[in-house]
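[09:14] KT: can someone run the structure on this one? pasting the chain below
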Amino acid sequence: MSIAAQLSPQLLAQLTEIVGESRVKTDASSLENWGKDYTKHFEPNPSVIVFPSSTEQVQQIVQFANANQIAITPSGGRTGLSAGAVASNGEIVVSLDKMSQILDFFPADRMVRIQAGVVTEQLQEYAESKDMYYPVDFASAGSSQMGGNIATNAGGIKVIKYGMTRNWVLGLTVVTGKGDVLRLNKGMIKNATGYALQHLFIGSEGTLGIVTEAEIKLERKPHDLQVMVLGVPDFDAVMPILHAFQSKIDLTAFEFFGEVAMQKVLDHGHVQRPFDTECPYYVLLEFEAPYEPIMDAAMEIFEHCMEEGWVLDGVLSQSLDQVESLWRLREDISESIAPFTPYKNDISVLITHVPAFIKEIEEIVEQNYPDFEICWFGHIGDGNLHLNILKPENLDKDDFFAKCKVVNEHVFNTVQKYDGSISAEHGVGMTKKPYLAMTRSAEEIEYMKVLKKVFDPNSIMNPGKLFD
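[09:31] RB: done, structure tokens below
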């Protein structure tokens, strides 16, 4: 299929008829802004940006794209880290920015129906206004959109307790690549009537169609959240700490980061070091403590970890302000390292394999990047690590990425050895596409391609992402 690099005036007029004159943009600034995500590996080159306001308009755009054999790239908050929302080949970018309404609330079902352009934080605040809670949370919650979260099955900082986005989706309205509108599962918890097609669209990265609405499950609000930040001497201490706490307390988060990450956040000047001792690594754990016995148990476990030498120093939050301040040590990492053009790896293995896996990855990193600054952090409580290699100031971006890609093979071979994933939560997009076979078998990939053909027979939906 040949993709038009520039749409003719006649085709632009047809798009304008669908969404209105103010909802079509072709100026260079708009093409640059809406044609990319957070990745810096690929240059955006869309032909036009359109802003539908309803499922019906999205359907008409998809039908138009099929009729004219023009590719579509769906666009949400553009916070992705795998180039899944980068339009680099003249695609029509379908932005969900104008589809940001919360449509209905079902208190008895603990469920809300939303449009796909609703921002994560907007949903969290709405849930709070109803004395409820939406637990999927991450650093980009203030700008990421729910449609994009669904398309990538976003995870974040509370997965150890609440799971991924998939766990909170009760139904979807989608426009398939064929141009059909499907209402999938309609919000039901129990529905034993064949294939659960909504789950195919969760994590599909816009390759099967466009999510336009969703029924999202909510939860009761957590009470009396407490946060501990613990300094640890080495990787080997991290998992014993996790096991010690999990054996007696239900954790809502268990995060990990290194001293390099800590220093980058401190350099921003917004937060202070939590305690005087400088440690190679840190864990942040969170738990509900509405009853005194839980706090007593937490302190006993902390003292046990100190006695075992797993913890060098630590702090327990004493107020809501301190809870927020301690969380910033972890949540501000991505923003703090962004100026260093980090090369990101988002990898995962079974929690059982984490200690051995980390040792091997660290050896690979030390052998191949002796002069590069390495920033470790991640959701280690669910087996997910973020390995960030920071670009030296005097090294060209392309040369830097080329050096990093050489070592990708070693890192991903180790992931494959432990039956892990090359992308735990960021998706595949274009950045991980060459390595998909290291996580998925050839047979699985073939089944995926067949499924794509069913929903998107003309291959107009986000081509070049996930697989070719």
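[09:33] KT: thanks! The first strand starts at residue 24 and ends at 25.
[09:34] RB: yep, looked fine to me
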